[in-house]
Amino acid sequence: MNDATQQATETAKKLLKQFQITKPPINVESLATKLKINIEHEELDDDVSGFLIIKKDKSTIVVNSCHPSNRQRFTIAHEIGHFMLHAKISGKEIFVDKKYNRDLNSSTGEIEEEKQANQFAAELLMPEKILRKEIEDSDIDLVDDTATFVLAKKFQVSEQALGYRLAKLDLGLED
User: Fold this and answer.
1) Neighbouring C-beta atoms of residue 50, cutoff 10 Å
2) Residue 38 pairs with which residues in a beta bridge?
3) HSE value, Cβ hemisphere, 13 Å, CA-based, for 86
4) Is the pLDDT assigned to residue 101 strictly greater than 70?
5) Is 162 within 8 Å of 148 (Cβ atoms)?
6) Which of 119, 129, 131 is nearest to 156 (CA)?
7) What are the CB-based long-range contacts (under 8 Å, 24+) for 147-155?
8) What is the rounded average pLDDT of the residues 132-155?
9) CA 120 to CA 1: how far, in whole Å?
10) What is the three-class DSSP state of 150?
11) Contact 117, 8 (CB under 8 A)
12) For residue range 44-98, what is the model confidence (pLDDT) as tens digits?
């Protein structure tokens, strides 16, 4: 893990600790409210997951209401990541999450801010400590598709996001 993704992970952990969040699913809308960020759900072009608008006295996350609820949750977490990690240092007033940022460039590291916001969102929605505890306490067989479906549902994330997170954490890969 590089310094930027480590910073994203640590920032998400501090936020969870600050608001004493210890169980899934993480209520990202409530968390945004506590951070004084408004959430608006609007129909957007399909290639736009959402965006963050930062003003001096009011910040707003607009999320694509046409996307599945798990995708909306990830988008909100991702935009909170931009708010926590990039808003003050970059001076930007808007961060837009488009599919090409998320799928192509962020995964190859071409857009470091997007990669970092994705790492923040993953740690926020599927905190390593909480995820490991759920797996241990439930004695989940991560090779079993039904078990991973149930775990993804408990964290209110997509199975794809959970699979990626498990792989990044090196969980469930043993026979």
Assistant:
1) 26
2) 60
3) 25
4) no
5) yes
6) 131
7) 148/172, 154/24, 154/25, 155/24, 155/25, 155/26, 155/125, 155/126, 155/131
8) 88
9) 13
10) helix
11) yes
12) 999 999 999 988 778 999 999 999 999 999 999 999 999 999 877 666 777 787 7
Nearest to 99 by CA among 64, 53, 54: 64
Whole-model pTM: value is 0.88
Q: Where does 3-126 sit in CATH, by number?
A: 1.10.10.2910
| Residues whose CB is less than 8 angstroms from the CB of residue 61 and which lie 6 or more positions away in sequence, other chains included | 32, 37, 38, 39, 40, 50, 51, 52, 53, 75, 76, 79, 80, 83
Percent of the chain scored above 90 by pLDDT? 65
Which amino acid, one-letter code, is at 139?
D
Could you tell me which residues come within 8 angstroms of residue 78 by beta carbon, excluding any fewer than 6 positions away? Answer: 49, 50, 97, 117, 118, 120, 121
Where b means 16+ CB within 10 Å and e means fewer, 56-70 reads eeebebbbbeebeeb
Position 36: which residue type? Answer: K
